C-alpha cells in the first residue's frame, strides 16, 4: 500500500516509493529506495522534504501505536534474534522431506532458464510467467527448509555455469531476503531479479564469457556491458518490475564507488542490490570454473567479512553470514573425533554447532555405510560432545557432499 507520511515518521527499512519532489531537489540516485539507516532519514529532512510516499508492501509501515503487536514487516535486524518470521501457512519441514521437492524445483528451474535464455537469444520475448512460477516454488521451498535448496544449489555441472550460478544466486537471495524480514511479495520480486541478474551475458560472445584464462582488459570491458544488456532485455519485458531491472543493472556497484557501471556509492545503492552483490560474489567465488579452483565457503565468508565497510556494508555481510551459517548446508567438515560429515542443518543458536550427517571415518579411512546425524548443539546423545575442527575439501576425500543431503 502506498502511504503519504511526514518525514518525521520515517525509520530505517521503510521503502520510499516517491520522494515527493523533483529529481534535482534531492541527492539520491532515484526516487524510490529502501531507507538503510537514520543518516539517510536525516539527509531527506535536511533537504527540506517534509512529506514522502512509502510503499508498505516493500518495507516497514508506520508503527501502529494502538497495539503492542509488531508489524508483519518487522525485520531480523530489529528483533536481532535471527531469521525473520515465516509467512502464515508455511510450515517448516525436515530436510529429508524437503529435499525431494527441492530436487524437482531445481531441475525445473534449470530447464526454464535454458529455454528462456535460448528464446531471448533468438529475439523472442522473455517468458516472465514461467520465471515467476519457478521463483514462487523456490521461495516456498526456502520457507519450508532453506538448507535443502541451498545445499543442492552447490551441486552443479561445470558446463552449466550461467544457469547454475543464476539459480544458486536466486536461492541465496530469497533466503537472505527472508532473513532480512522482507514480505513475500517483495521476496518474489527479488527472486526474479536474482534469477535474471546476469541475463545480459547472452549478448556477449561465449568465447569471452567461458574463457579458460584470465580476461584481457578489453575483454573485461566487454563483460562489464552485460549489466546494460540485462537492463535492456528486462525493460522490454512486459510486466517486469523496476526492482528486478535495477538488480540486473546495479549488482556490480560497490559501496566504496569501485563498482560499475556508474560507480555508485553507499546510499545510492539500495539495500537489496547490495544484498545481491554479496550473494553474487559469494556464489561466484565458491564455484569451480574451468580456469580456477573454488574457494571454500568459510574462506569466501572471510573474504566478504574483510570487504565489509569498503565494497560491502559490514552489517549486511554479518547478516548474510548469520543467514547461511559459517558452515553452510552442503559443507564437508571434519570433527575432533576423526569423523567426516556433511552439514545438513545449521541450527539457530550457535553457528559453530550445526547438525552434521556422518559419512566417513578418517581414523580407518572407511566410508560409513549407513550415514547418521549428529546435532552438535545438543549436550547429550551420540557424538554430541564432538566439535568441528575444519572445513574439508570434497575433492581430497573423493566425496560429493550434496549426494548426502
Ligand atoms: Fe554480473
CATH architecture of the largest domain: Orthogonal Bundle
Strands, count: 9
What's the helical proportion of residues?
40-55%
CATH homologous superfamily annotation of the largest domain? Hypothetical protein af1432
- Rg, please? 22 Å
Give the low-pLDDT segments. 65-89
Draw up the topology in text:
Layout: E1 2-6, E2 15-18, E3 33-34, H1 38-46, E4 51-55, H2 76-79, H3 95-121, H4 128-153, H5 161-179, H6 184-195, H7 206-209, H8 217-224, H9 226-235, H10 242-250, H11 271-285, H12 297-307, H13 314-324, E5 332-335, E6 339-345, E7 355-361, E8 366-375, E9 388-391
Antiparallel strand pairs: 1-4, 2-3, 2-4, 5-6, 5-9, 6-7, 7-8
Helix pairs in contact: 3-4, 4-5, 4-6, 5-6, 5-11, 5-13, 6-10, 9-10, 11-12, 12-13
Bound molecules: fe (ii) ion (FE2).
Summarize, please.
The chain has 405 residues and is an alpha+beta fold.
Structure description:
Residues 65-89 have low confidence and may be disordered. The protein has 3 domains: 2-73, no CATH class; 95-324, Hypothetical protein af1432; 332-404, no CATH class. The protein has helices spanning 38-46, 76-79, 95-121, 128-153, 161-179, 184-195, 206-209, 217-224, 226-235, 242-250, 271-285, 297-307, 314-324, and strands at 2-6, 15-18, 33-34, 51-55, 332-335, 339-345, 355-361, 366-375, 388-391. It is built from 13 helices and 9 strands. Strands 8-7-6-5-9 form a 5-stranded antiparallel beta sheet. Strands 1-4-2-3 form a 4-stranded antiparallel beta sheet, with no helix packed on it. The longest helix is centred in the N-terminal third of the chain and has 27 residues, at 95-121. It is 41% helix and 12% strand. The radius of gyration is 22 Å and the shape is globular. With 405 residues, it is α+β, with helices and mostly antiparallel strands. Bound molecules: fe (ii) ion.
